[in-house]
Amino acid sequence: MNRIRIGRRMALAGTGALLGTAMLARPGFAQDAPDKPAELIVRAWGGVWADALDKGVSQPFTAATGIRVRHDLTEDNEIQPKIWQAAAQGRVPPIHVNWDTTVNATKSALRGVTEDLSDLPNLATAFEGARPKGLDGVPIVNTYSYVYVLAYADKAFPDGPPDSWQVMTDPRFKGRIALYDDGIGFHFPAQVAGGGKVEDIPGNMQPAWDFIAKVKENEPLLGEDPDFTTWFQNGEIDLACTIISNAREAKKNGIPVSWTVPKEGAKVDTDGLWVPVGLPENELYWARQYVNFALSRDAQQVWCDGLGLPGMVPGLTPPADLAGDPAYPTTPEDFARLISIPTRVQVENESEWFGRFKDIMQG
């Protein structure tokens, strides 16, 4: 079981709500709050991702507490083994808070290297989706959902958006399409576009691999989140399977880019925050306060607006450009049009899927 300290719970109950409401600007904290560290290190993704987190969560947290927040832009898959190794060796972890995919975070939770966050005050009023399913306690706090859309350059589709992922195999776009370097977000729609069924995942994904092999013939660019925005801005690509935030950032920067959810559907998933075990007592306390504040309505409104993603607390106002967009799901009907695979299935198979994708692309 993850460590839960009685004293920390009592202190958190007295000050946690303070950091999760409009009272954030008040300078005082309960007398039993532990000493503040000089800084908190929060792992984040670069580009618009870190910018949105900084504006919505990190800067207001610093304004309220005086604790500097530093964003570590090490990729999530690279920081993971460092945290695991620190826990195994009884060392202090390299970061205080990990902003992570729910799938990656679940892998860490199953290894027992995550602190339990079930007593965070703002979790009590968050949507049920903020709590991961199938795990003991709350080792991860899910903070928003997101869709891997089919993003496209408007000039390449003057007659309207493409209606199918099959467009990725069109020879006209050879060398002008982009995917994540491990294929994340693309495996599931590729399964459908290749003639398979979602319910056959993970038992029979040959249709997905066959379809990805066809896409490989179009020599896709492979990269990470900031790359997609840059590629669209530089006019290097016409099509991409990417999280909506990256396409939206390019559009906000004046690039004529749009996105769609094709008829085969698109993957929907969540990201979250978690705190690694092994932190000194006072640093652990303030790391938990950071996560608690990230679940406040004020923080979620700014953070999620910056990303163009639906948050996990009631009362948020969708950005004007995304209200009613199928890639900004807020209702059961919205989610029914998307492809959602249980986190546990992804945890058990993702490494194999990533390896298979890379083998195809390198073959």
Task: List strands and helices in order, with pairings.
Blueprint: H1 6-19, E1 39-43, H2 48-65, E2 68-72, H3 76-88, E3 97-101, H4 102-110, E4 141-153, E5 177-180, H5 187-193, H6 206-216, E6 221-223, H7 225-233, E7 239-243, H8 244-252, E8 257-260, E9 268-274, H9 281-294, H10 297-307, H11 332-336, H12 343-362
Parallel strand pairs: 1-2, 1-3, 5-6, 5-7
Antiparallel strand pairs: 3-9, 4-7, 4-8, 4-9
Helix pairs in contact: 1-9, 2-10, 4-12, 5-6, 6-12, 7-8
Kindly describe this structure.
This protein folds into 2 domains: 6-145 and 269-307, D-Maltodextrin-Binding Protein, domain 2; 146-268 and 325-362, D-Maltodextrin-Binding Protein, domain 2, CATH 3.40.190.10. The protein is 39% helix and 14% strand. It is built from 12 helices and 9 strands. The protein has helices at 6-19, 48-65, 76-88, 102-110, 187-193, 206-216, 225-233, 244-252, 281-294, 297-307, 332-336, 343-362, and strands at 39-43, 68-72, 97-101, 141-153, 177-180, 221-223, 239-243, 257-260, 268-274. Strands 1, 2, 3, 4, 5, 6, 7, 8 and 9 form a 9-stranded mixed β-sheet that branches. The model is unreliable at 1-18 and 20-29 (pLDDT under 50).
